[in-house]
Amino acid sequence: MEPERNTIRRVLCFAAHPDDLDFGAAGTVAAWTTAGIQVSYCILTDGDAGGFSEEHRNTIVETRHEEQRRAARLVGVEDVSFLGERDGYLSPTEAVIRGIVARIREVRPDIVVSSHPERNWDRLQKSHPDHLACGEAVTRAVYPAVENPFAFPELAAAGLEAYRVPWLWFYGGPEEKENHFVDVTGFEDVKLQAIRTHISQHPDVEKMDAAVRSMLLGNAVRGGLPGGRSAEGFHVVGVNTEQTIAGF
Q: Which residues lie closer than 8 Å to 117 by C-beta, 6 or more apart?
């Protein structure tokens, strides 16, 4: 369900908020960058509704941007961009989709990673409305807008030509949709370090650590990995593969 690792050169990861990718995919990202794969992040909102203290309202955007950049560096990612949408109000609007299309055409990745557009009823917190909106906007961008030379013609005029995305990987969706599990054993600590970097969001770090480790072990069991392994689960969708027929 995925391209051979030696065919993956670039990956572009989208998230609604700073810290979403660290919970959903940081172990996989660390494995990719360790293997020499270039990974970029694009965060759709500024995370301005995050945090727990009123006194930090004036600086929360700057804080969350810096937290995300530091977390990204821990897993080998230097290219981090923000679309600047308002936290809690994200929608798959034309402007948001245009921004996503622009980033995909700039990076021209082999894999696009995004939060899932479908709600997870087993753990509703995974399905923040912004997460769903991110998944929907990225899906609409990946097909058909990114590969349609007549969509957003101003982007093509600026040199951002149409591009066919091979693979779309979703994190944070319903477990029954997951069809690919990445063994991230050995990357648990760096994933947790990345999550802890978002200190403005975690009132109980020890409880969060325990929950994440348990989740990784549970993913590995569901993925059929040997006992004691850790994994991250994804819903992998082939967009433009050897089996793809144009327009279908």
A: 132, 135, 136, 138, 139, 170, 173
Q: How many other C-beta atoms lie within 10 A of the C-beta of residue 42?
A: 25
pTM of the predicted protein model: 0.94
Q: Checking DSSP bridges between strand 111-115 and strand 167-171, what pairing results, if any?
A: parallel
Angle at 175 between CA 174 and CA 181, to 5 degrees: 125
Query: Are residues 40 and 76 in contact, defined by beta-carbon separation less than 8 angstroms?
Result: no
Task: Give pLDDT, residue 53.
Answer: 59
Question: Cβ of 129: how many Cβ atoms within 10 Å?
Answer: 13
CATH 3.40.50.1000 applies to domain 8-238: no
pLDDT in tens, 198-229: 987 777 889 989 999 999 999 999 999 999 99
Q: How far is CA 207 from the centre of its chain?
A: 23
Least trusted range by pLDDT, from 36-40, 66-70, 93-97, 123-127 = 123-127
3-state secondary structure 62-90: HHHHHHHHHHHHHCCCCEEEEEEECCCCC
Digit-coded pLDDT (tens) for 111-127? 999 999 999 898 888 88
Strands across the sheet containing 38-45:
79-85, 38-45, 10-15, 111-115, 167-171, 231-238, 180-183
Burial of 164 (0-12, 13-18, 19+ CB in 10 A): middle
Task: Map out the domains of the chain as residue ranges.
Answer: 8-238
**Residues 193, 195, 200, 201, CA torsion sign:** negative
Picking from 53, 77, 73, the residue whose alpha carbon sits closest to that of residue 197 is: 73
